């Protein structure tokens, strides 16, 4: 195939096949090299037709680009689109604005689009900015392909839209804004208002998650069912005989709906701790709406019922004894959850009091009280911890039971998030495993002090189900180190398991004496014993001792027993000791 000398660079850049396609399409006379201009059927009333050439000139578009692109009656042919794409990239936004003429031609352009997978050039139809970088060869080729296939029908859509599509309304204002509604009004388009048949109002939240639409033939509308305390961007579009004949949106206005009074609840209303421990009090604050605005919080306390509450910050050195904080712990569909904490370091007798978190926003205030009491009682479990038994009781999936072994579950939190763990769907069972691991211990206050979000709190207190969706599940990964720190912090306060259990009696008929090595910081020892063997019931008896020795009496003769011992303090109880087995003797005649 031979080519004119002037087209040789184009031939070399796009190749013979595309060049031949363009050349042969152009020869048909439909909208190629030989097909110039629009048919008479696309012409309309001159009163509706904008002077797009003059518009481009006023925006500083070069003469070449004005000549090639700005006359809707003379679209560029397939060869000229290469020149346009090369010479006019910086003027495309201005040209698009003039060609659209405040009318949205996109429905027509999209309906007639053809030939290109990426319709990158259709931004011309609604006057928007181009999203491509024409300095990049691949994007340049895609843009040119879009123009070459669609430039003629696009310009036909412009001509049709000028005749039947209205201009946008003006002077959009919010007359009043409530908690869940807004009263809006506007004025008809400055020109061709007779084309308007109705208006479409769009209210979109600033995070783009909520869209509320309304329709009216009037120039005012009450939009309801909005979220309180939420920022909305509002526009109005004028529509003609049908949805496809429409203006571009009006100038955008922004409103913020009024908020509701915050709702406060205590993480725990009654809390216990011991002298010298660190304890964290927490309140959860529900703020309706989507606009993030941190509430104001003041922690106060009092010691007796008749006295006033006193601000915490005014008592002593806040930085050494107390620490107050607040963080966003959950973002829900229609509300935000904040958590405020008050941490008391090295608790003293004067810290046992009635505390109150006072929460205030610009829309109201709420309070909640928390009682902090001294801890005097050591918790005694009904039976020694048995993770396998707990997991079976929780009906854990069979493939996941391998993680529940023995008397303790030393959770490898990072391992629980690995792919092979999730392959067996064990992530769905994680909340059950955490529940069995925690037993009577809760790391909740510690995790809240470390700003662990609501969705991950099941790792700390087992009270909520963990997320099973992959994205939500993975969102807890950044907080695993905080959870592990709380785990270690709590375990560090608990005594170690007793060791060296042994019998110290010479007559094992119905009474035995058992002793073990003394455990540092243990205030109480809990001794569990049960009958083992065929037909034995899986039930533990228990006794306590403040010393490292115990006497078990009234035991049945000729019976085999298992004994384990836990060391306990106010902070909690240890894991079980190793089992000691013994058998009682028959009574001698």
UniProtKB/TrEMBL annotation:
Residues 262-373 form the Ig-like domain. This is DB module. SMART domains: FN3, IG. CDD domains: FN3. Pfam families: DB (PF01682), fn3 (PF00041). Residues 168-260, 497-587 form the Fibronectin type-III domain. It comes from Trichuris muris (Mouse whipworm).
């Amino acid at each position: 195939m031979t080519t004119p000398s002037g087209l040789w660079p184009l031939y070399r850049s796009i190749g013979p096949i595309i060049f031949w396609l363009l050349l042969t399409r152009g020869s048909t006379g439909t909208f190629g090299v030989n097909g110039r201009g629009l048919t008479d059927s696309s012409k309309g009333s001159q009163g509706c037709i904008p002077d797009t050439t003059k518009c481009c000139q006023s925006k500083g578009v070069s003469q070449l680009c004005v000549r090639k692109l700005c006359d809707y009656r003379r679209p560029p042919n397939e060869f000229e689109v290469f020149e346009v794409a090369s010479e006019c990239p910086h003027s495309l936004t201005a040209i698009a604005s003039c060609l659209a003429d405040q009318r949205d031609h996109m429905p027509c352009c999209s309906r007639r689009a053809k030939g290109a997978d990426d319709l990158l050039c259709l931004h011309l139809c609604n006057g928007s900015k181009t999203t491509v970088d024409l300095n990049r060869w691949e994007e340049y080729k895609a843009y040119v392909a879009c123009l070459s296939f669609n430039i003629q029908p696009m310009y036909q859509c412009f001509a049709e839209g000028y005749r039947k599509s209205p201009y946008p309304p003006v002077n959009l204002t919010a007359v009043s804004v409530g908690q869940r509604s807004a009263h809006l009004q506007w004025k008809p388009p400055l020109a061709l208002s007779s084309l308007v048949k109705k208006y479409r109002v769009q209210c979109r939240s600033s995070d783009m998650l909520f869209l509320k639409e309304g329709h009216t033939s009037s120039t005012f509308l009450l939009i309801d069912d909005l979220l309180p305390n939420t920022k909305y961007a509002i526009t109005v579009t004028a529509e003609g005989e049908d949805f496809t004949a429409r203006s571009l949106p009006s100038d955008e206005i922004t409103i913020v709906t009024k908020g509701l009074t915050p709702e406060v609840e205590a993480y725990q209303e009654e809390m216990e701790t011991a002298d010298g421990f660190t304890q964290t009090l927490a309140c959860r604050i529900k703020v309706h709406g989507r606009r993030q605005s941190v509430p104001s919080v003041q922690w106060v306390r009092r010691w007796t019922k008749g006295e006033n509450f006193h601000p915490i910050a005014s008592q002593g050195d806040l930085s050494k004894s107390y620490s107050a904080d607040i963080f966003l712990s959950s973002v829900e569909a229609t509300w935000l959850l904040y958590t405020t904490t008050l941490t008391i370091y090295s608790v003293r007798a004067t810290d046992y009091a009635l505390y109150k978190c006072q929460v205030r926003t610009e829309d109201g205030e709420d309070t909640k009280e928390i009682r902090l009491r001294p801890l005097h009682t050591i918790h005694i479990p009904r039976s020694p911890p048995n993770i396998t038994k707990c997991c079976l009781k929780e009906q854990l999936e069979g493939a996941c039971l391998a993680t529940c072994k023995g008397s303790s579950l030393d959770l490898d939190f990072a391992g629980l998030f690995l792919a092979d763990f999730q392959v067996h769907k064990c992530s769905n069972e994680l909340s059950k495993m955490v529940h069995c691991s925690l037993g009577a211990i809760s790391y909740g206050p510690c995790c809240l002090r470390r700003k662990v979000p609501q969705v991950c709190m099941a790792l700390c207190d087992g009270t909520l189900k963990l997320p099973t969706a992959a994205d939500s599940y993975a969102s807890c990964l950044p907080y695993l180190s905080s959870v592990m720190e709380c785990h270690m912090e709590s375990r560090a306060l608990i005594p170690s398991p007793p060791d060296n259990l042994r019998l110290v009696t010479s007559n094992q008929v119905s009474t035995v004496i058992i002793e073990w090595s003394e455990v540092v910081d243990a205030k109480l020892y809990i001794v569990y014993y049960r009958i083992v063997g065929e037909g034995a019931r899986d039930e533990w008896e228990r006794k306590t001792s403040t010393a490292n020795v115990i006497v078990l009496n009234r035991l049945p003769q000729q019976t085999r027993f298992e004994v384990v011992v836990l060391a306990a303090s106010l902070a909690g109880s240890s894991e079980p000791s190793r089992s000691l087995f013994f058998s009682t003797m028959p009574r001698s005649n």
